[in-house]
Automatic annotation (TrEMBL):
One GO molecular-function entry: oxoglutarate dehydrogenase (succinyl-transferring) activity
Name this polypeptide is given: oxoglutarate dehydrogenase (succinyl-transferring)
Family stated for the protein in its record: Belongs to the alpha-ketoglutarate dehydrogenase family.
Keyword Oxidoreductase in annotation: yes
A matching Pfam family: OxoGdeHyase_C
Top-level taxonomy: Bacteria, Pseudomonadati, Pseudomonadota, Gammaproteobacteria, Thiotrichales
Cofactor(s) needed by this chain: thiamine diphosphate
Organism: Candidatus Thiothrix phosphatis
UniProt KW keywords: Oxidoreductase, Thiamine pyrophosphate
EC code(s) of this entry: 1.2.4.2
NCBIfam families to which the protein is assigned, alphabetical: 2oxo_dh_E1, PRK09404.1, PRK12270.1
Keyword field contains NAD: no
Amino acid sequence: MNKGDGQAAAWNADTQLDGNSVIYLEEMYERYLEEPDSVPASWQQYFDELPQVNGHGRDARHSQVKDYFRAYAAKPQAFVAASSGGSVDLEHERKQVKVLQLINAYRVQGHFHARTNPLDENAPRFVKELTLEYHSLTEQDLDVAFNTGSLFTADQMKLRDIISLLEATYCGSIGAQYMHTTSTEQKRWIQQRLESIRATPSFNKEEKIDILDRLTVAEGLERYLHTNYVGQKRFSLEGGESLIPMLNSMILHAGKKGAVEMVIGMAHRGRLNVLVNILGKSPAMLFSEFEGKYADTGRTGDVKYHMGYASDLKTEGGPVHVAMAFNPSHLEIVGPVVEGAVRARQDRWAENGYEKIVPVVLHGDAAFAGQGVNMEMMQMADTRGYRTHGTMHIVINNQVGFTTSASIDARSTYYCTDIAKMVDSPVFHVNGDDPEAVVMVTQLALDYRNHFKKDVVIDLVCYRRHGHNEADEPSATQPVMYRKIRSLPTTRERYAQKLAAEGIITEEDAKMLVQRCRQQLTDGIPTVPHLLGKDEVQNPHPVNWKRYVDGSWDMPVDTTIDEETIQRLGEKLTIVPEGFKLNSRVARIVTDRKRMAAGEQPMDWGFCENLAYATLVEEGFPIRLSGEDCGRGTFFHRHAVFHEQETGETYVPLKNLSPAQLPFVVIDSLLSEEAVLGFEYGYATTEANTLTIWEAQFGDFANCAQVVIDQFISSGEQKWGRLCGLVMLLPHGFEGQGPEHSSARLERYLQLCAQNNMQVCVPSTPAQAFHMLRRQMLRDYRTPLIVMTPKSLLRHPMAVNTLEDLTERGFQNIISEIDPLEAEKVTRLVMCSGKVYYDLLEARRKAALEHVAIVRIEQLYPFPEVDMCTILRHYPNAEEHVWCQEEPLNQGAWLSIQPSLRAVLGSMAHLEVASRPASASPAVGSSKVHAAQQQALVNAALGIIAES
């Protein structure tokens, strides 16, 4: 085949190419130059047949040519000096380009060749791009001086010295993976920090002894527990002890740089060690937990390796408050919770909060790569509503997941940290058996976070000396790995020997550190030398949770407002800036709201909800509302944000009530439920006086965040004593639109209810929503509020209220019959919640059934027993009692509310249910079948016999 044939084959391989395909062609050619087999055979043949460049064989990649000119821009004087001696040596210049390509290769791929794996230090991966041959260089070139380009070193060096610098910088105990980032400034910053010191730690004698001391207490605690509490799970840190000097250095360095708080989230691996040797938890307290000596708080409590803790530590820059977040066994789910808690703290400090509060999230290697919540969390990193200006991510890389091999089954990427490349975060892989490198890279990473306000990842490559827990036998599934692990000295032993060889300490000094640690543990005293007492620290932003500890859900509270307030705030909510063009439909809504505020038109849901927010902000409660479409509202009802139709500008009336008002924040979130709800939970557990709301686009979207609901929202108070006033708004209602998005799965929340852990409400009027939101904040009571919010009711002509409903009465747990029935004539009492009430009311009125009364139970849990008893006394002749629901029999409230109803009705009362038949799916797909089912359950509830 001649050259023309090859060219034709290549073009035939992709007939869509045209004059606009230059970028595609350049990328294809770049791939070919780097790895010929990476392009299709037809293109490979075409590129092979291209004429040689100046007779020298393969062309240089365009990216490498660009690097040459970048290097010239960085050090033009070096290039001028090199070419000032007369005629230009073309061969030397060609090799100069190759040297620059080699430098770039080390920056891009040196981490693959780095000695970061303590289990395989002496056999790093072979990387051909780092060889002389790959770049057409030879041994004879090693003693030739070349320009060093953009390297942070002398302008000219011999090639062997350049390679020595590159090997030390990029192929030692630290593997720096950062060239994927798009910012040249950030890349140059990292290069300067690493290359100028050859990535070589430089610590003085005291700092090295401190590192050894932290390794000693880390190892000492694990050995003490292993000896004294045989067979008990502790999820040991052994093999990853460098985490302790890492975190210790991070806290001290953060304090020196101005941080005042740090929030740490981690799963169970190494947690006990961090609690004792970083946060200063008393060993005596930990040992009591191992011995089962828990204080009886009346709560369920939790296992010791899920518990949180907080303390204050002394640093050069002042005290740092360090908090460890409580965490269930769902591994990575604590990450977004920490981010929410950090954002709440940063908001307290206002504009410089990111400098004061540092989030630290620890991950397992298998979990970091495998759990999708990490992707959701990292996508939050630079978004308006969830930004914390940089998180320190630490991966405790045990190189195995329980029994799953990291190399073949745990992931598809080369590194467990490759998810970080998605958000342009640099990754520093570091050998856990080189604690000095660990501490150095920790300080570098923290400085990067502070400087660029971006996430950064440290991959602490280590191993797990025992199995998943201490009773496990790891060699059953990883025999080769654990044969190697058993032969290794511990990190502390290796480092002690290193310091002894340097003359820093003696063998006796190292033994004394071990003995001191053992004595501290025996005496049960803290092992952290810079621990501060609570009376030594003044918190400038205190949060008072004590007032909520003994609160009760039924404590009386006045949520009414006066008519003047409605009119005044209603006017501010409908102000549109001059020249601000609204969408025509939104303009009509604003006009209607003006009439509602004046009492000229009944109030709808959107008006009452916005008015509730306005009153709370005015009364001293900041508001944070987030969800995928919450600015406008999925169902076009809220319109908390106005959008100018020509410019796209936005205006938020709730932010413009008064010059000195408290914040109102409304965020259209990223398309995430799990991470966003976790974030809002973390925020709500940190801020007692902020009304924190998460709204699902549809109620069943919360399915994707079930772990947050199960492990935090419903049980956090019982397990950890964590109070939380989070509100979840879940659109719910059977509208004949099919199985999806009909049900918010009310039954799941009610099944989780016990010990007054949550409130579950189904408000049926705008006024009820108004009072419910205000009640949530005005009471000295903080418990999660789950709300089944409506869809069609948002514009139902009967679901409206008058001004008197806001000024004269508050939230009603149960709404009694509204029609003027004679109570003595009522023999059938129908109880329901939500939208079905209006169908029942319409059908009852149409059939003129004066013996049937309908009541709405607006709060399903805690069940309002007293209110229900009052209703029953009002109807002394009622003999038939019916619970009516739209949901299928096995769903909805029936199965959970039945015991409460029977308790107030008495054992002899007749109680039946009217619902859809039991179903594996929430709803049918046919609107006609839906309508027939709806009519049938309404008729059954009212006792109407349908005509055949």
